[in-house]
Here is the input.
Amino acid sequence: MSETSENTSQPQSEQPKIVVGVDGSEQSIAALRQADRLSRLLGARIEAVTTWSYPVAVSPYAMSADPSFEDIARDILDEALKDAYGTDRPALLTTVVQHGHPAQVLIERSKGAEMLVLGSRGRGGFAGLLLGSVSSECASHANCPVLIVR
Here is the structure.
């Protein structure tokens, strides 16, 4: 099951894109800022991607609709964009909130991208790890160069 909602501030074009994985962590906010610098150099648009999924112990049929996991993910993305850019968002910024495993979604969305930009570690995982599991998986399997921001 793959659900995607996209918000495009400019029409999609043949312009190159930089995909950024966003989970609201400080590292993902740094990745958004780095993607903005790179997009200016490459003349590329930025596609900020946040994923969501149902918790393992929860059936999607048992969930109430208020608030939805997708809405929570959208709020996390909006807050990260505000933290990264304030009110001066890049002109060629699109946002994607998609159901699925973060690494799988980002690897799929990296097709045709100039670069995939990620924070070195996200919100989950173990404190001692130098590289998060999503970053590691994307670095190994993405369809474009990957920049991991510390």
